[in-house]
Every structure is written in structure tokens, then in C-alpha cells.
Design a protein that fits this description.
The chain has 102 residues and is mostly helical. It has one domain. Helices cover 66% and strands 0% of the residues. The longest helix has 16 residues. It is globular, with a radius of gyration of 15 Å. The structure holds heme C (HEC). The site of heme C has 16 residues, from helix 4.
């Protein structure tokens, strides 16, 4: 157990040393519970898209503002408005669910 903790600590240090994507393993796990294709890469992409595309008409909604059950319908409705592709919608969804908690 102790070794695992040390390894995780080293990983976290490494991630922050590289500038960090602000995507934690917990966020990836949460997103994966809803869609097994979620990964750190899709959450990172989703975060960037979310910040670039989803705050132009209204303030960015915090990921925690809607539940993991609500987000898919919202992103499906907002994706075309933000002119993003289906793949990009999926990445945005991974991010908001991962970052949003339950
Ligand atoms: C072209 C303008 C536009 C863009 C771009 C846009 N939205 Fe919206 N959004 C709206 C409007 C208008 C509403 C209010 C009407 C509605 O809910 O359909 C809204 C409402 C919302 C709501 C509240 C919905 C609810 O039911 O409480 C959320 C959350 C949201 N948008 C998320 C997003 C996300 C995520 C993106 C990026 C994929 C995005 N929006 C991009 C115009 C936009």
C-alpha cells in the first residue's frame, strides 16, 4: 500500500511539473463510470473545448451545475449550437461528468 502511495505521489509531482492538465485520476474514473471510452486525453480535450466553445453565448456553467444524468441531453442540444463534432461532444461530456461529481 505504502509503495502505491509513493508511486501516486511521484506521478502527481510529475504531472504538475509538466504543467499539468488539471485532470485528476478521480475525474477520469468518474467519467469512465458513465462511458468506458473516457481517458485523460478525452477529458483534457473536453476541458479545452468546453472553455473555448461553451461560454460564448452564456457564462460557462460549472460542471457541477448539472447531474451526470442531465449532461448528455444538454450537450446533445448545445453541441450543434457550439458547432462541434459528435466526437468533440463526447469529449466535452467526459469532462463535465468527470469534473462535475455525481
Ligand atoms: C450559440 C449559443 C450557445 C452556445 C455556443 C452554447 N450554448 Fe448553452 N445555451 C444557449 C441558450 C440560448 C441556452 C438557454 C436555452 C436552452 O436551455 O436551450 C443555453 C443553456 C445552456 C445550459 C442550461 C440548460 C438547462 O437545461 O439548465 C447549459 C448547461 C448549457 N447551455 C451548456 C452549454 C455547453 C456545454 C455548451 C458547449 C457545448 C454550450 N452550452 C454552448 C446557447 C448556447
Amino acid at each position: 500500500m505504502r509503495q502505491v502511495h509513493i508511486a501516486l505521489g511521484a506521478l502527481a509531482l510529475l504531472a504538475s511539473a509538466c504543467g499539468g492538465s488539471a485532470i485528476s485520476p478521480q475525474m477520469v474514473q468518474r467519467a469512465q463510470a458513465h462511458d468506458s471510452s473516457a481517458s485523460e486525453a478525452t477529458l483534457t480535450q473536453g476541458k479545452a473545448l468546453y472553455e473555448q466553445k461553451c461560454g460564448t453565448c452564456h457564462e460557462l456553467y460549472p460542471p457541477s451545475s448539472h447531474s451526470a444524468e442531465k449532461w448528455p441531453g444538454i450537450v446533445e442540444r448545445m453541441g450543434p449550437m457550439a458547432k462541434i463534432s459528435k466526437d468533440e461532444e463526447r469529449a466535452v461530456l467526459h469532462y463535465v461528468i468527470g469534473a462535475g461529481g455525481e
